[in-house]
Amino acid sequence: MIVSFLYLFQYVMILLNGQVPIAFGGTEEPVAYGELISIGGLGPSVNGNLSSTIAEILETKLSIDSSRFYIKFYDAQRSFFGYNGSTF
Ligand SMILES: *[C@@H]1O[C@H](CO)[C@@H](O)[C@H](O)[C@H]1NC(C)=O
Ligand SMILES: *[C@@H]1O[C@H](CO)[C@@H](O)[C@H](O)[C@H]1NC(C)=O
């Protein structure tokens, strides 16, 4: 699962791919991997809350144990994020 997140909902893109075989910890039990990209706004506390919230959604909706979920946070510079033929 790749999730791109920006603060204005208009710019939020969510990409889900359930077709990728993933082994984690030597098993193929339900598992998820996420990437969250934002121009600013991320930090230890926000990331912790997002990780907790997303893990809870995955656990309740998709029965993915939170111990089988990685999420990677990227804080992108505006000039390193292309959009609409330019950059933010
Ligand atoms: C993270 O969650 C805690 C507990 O719900 C809350 O007190 C805190 O304000 C949140 N931090 C951010 C940055 O949202
Ligand atoms: C996309 O770029 C065009 C040309 O620069 C501009 O007219 C338009 O307003 C832009 N659209 C958005 C949603 O930013």
From TrEMBL:
Point out the signal peptide segment. 1-25
Q: Where in the cell is it found?
A: Secreted
Q: Which reaction does it catalyse?
A: 3-phenylpyruvate = enol-phenylpyruvate; L-dopachrome = 5,6-dihydroxyindole-2-carboxylate
Query: What EC class does the entry list?
Result: isomerase
A GO MF label: dopachrome isomerase activity
Q: Pfam families from the xrefs?
A: MIF
**In which family does this protein belong, per the annotation?**
Belongs to the MIF family.
State what protein this is by name. Answer: L-dopachrome isomerase
